C-alpha cells in the first residue's frame, strides 16, 4: 500500500495548450491516503480515466508529478509502480483456465505453490467461480471474463494500489452488488489503497470512503458520501448526486433574508457573498408541502414504491419534492417550505458556508 500524492498535476492531449479549456485534466493537488478506498465519479469525458491512467503510469502528465510514499514515479512505467489495474472491458488469457489466469500474477512473483492455491481458491469463492476454475477462459461470457479480471486484481496483497476503471460495466446487476460487497470486504480485510472510476453514483457512494467528483476536467469536491449529499461544494455535485438531484433556485440574498420567485423568506443566518450570481440549493428530501411558504403548483406525482416524487411549478421552474408513500398530495395549488438546515447557498456555482460555520451533519439529518 502507498500514499499517492498528486503534485500540481495537469494534462492536455494537445501539443501546445493555450488555455484551461485545452486541458483534459485541470491542475490538481491532493494526497490519496494510504489504505483508503476512493471513487472517481463523474460523467463521460470529465477526466476520470485520464487521472487514473496517470496514476497507473499508462500516461505521462503534461505538468506536475505523481509520488508514491514520497517517491517520484511520474516517469516510471506501470510495471515498476507495483499496482494492479482492472479495465472497463475484460482482459484475460483465453488459452488459460480460470485458475491459471488468477494464479498468473502470483506465479510471476514466484510465490510458494501452497500460497498460490490458497489465494486462488479464496478469490474463486469471492467472484463465485469455484465451479469453473478449471475451464478455459475462451468459452466464458463477457461478464465471467470480467470477474476473472477483477479476481486477478484482488489476488495480490503486495500492491501499492488497486485501480478499477469502470470494472462492472459488463456485469449483470445482481452480480454488481455482490462484487461491490466483496471489494468492500477485501478493502476492510487487507487495507489496500483502492481507486475506483465510475459514472454511477450508487457504485461510488456504496464503495468508497471518499468520493472524488469530477466535472469538465476539474475536481469539484472530495468528500464522504454524507458530505456530498448534505453539503455539495458545487452546484454540479448537487445536481449529479441524488435522485432526483438538488433543486437550484436563482435567488437574491440580503443579510439573513432570501427572495425566490418574488417571495421572501428567512434563512436564519447570513452568508459572506461577494456580489456574484447567487443560487439556493435544496434537496427534494428537504422540501415540505404546506399551507404557507413559497407558492407553487403540483404538476404531477410519481409513485416509486417507497416514496412519491412530487413535481411542482414554482415561478416557472420545475421543483422536485420527496414525500412519504402514504402522504396526501394536494391537487393543484400548494406551498413549499425548506427544512431548517437543508438549504445550501451558492455564488458563481460554488458553495458558500454560512457565517459562523456549518452545523454538524447529524443536525440536518435529524431535521429531515
Automatic annotation (TrEMBL):
GO MF annotation list: ABC-type ferric iron transporter activity; ATP binding; ATP hydrolysis activity
PROSITE patterns, per database record: ABC_TRANSPORTER_2
GO cellular component terms, semicolon-separated: ATP-binding cassette (ABC) transporter complex, substrate-binding subunit-containing
Enzyme type, top EC level: hydrolase
InterPro entries: AAA+_ATPase, ABC_transporter-like_ATP-bd, ABC_transpr_FbpC, ABC_transpr_MalK/UgpC-like, Mo/tungstate-bd_C_term_dom, NA-bd_OB-fold, OB_MalK-like, P-loop_NTPase
UniProt entry keywords in alphabetical sequence: ATP-binding, Cell membrane, Hydrolase, Membrane, Nucleotide-binding, Transport
SUPFAM superfamilies for the chain: MOP-like (SSF50331), P-loop containing nucleoside triphosphate hydrolases (SSF52540)
Entry superkingdom: Bacteria
EC number(s) recorded for this UniProt protein: 3.6.3.-
Gene3D superfamilies noted in UniProt: 2.40.50.100, Nucleic acid-binding proteins (2.40.50.140), P-loop containing nucleotide triphosphate hydrolases (3.40.50.300)
Domain ABC transporter span(s) in chain numbering: 4-241
Family affiliation: Belongs to the ABC transporter superfamily.
PANTHER family: ABC TRANSPORTER ATP-BINDING PROTEIN, MALTODEXTRIN IMPORT ATP-BINDING PROTEIN MSMX
Protein name (record): Trehalose import ATP-binding protein SugC
Species: Palleronia marisminoris
Gene label: sugC_1
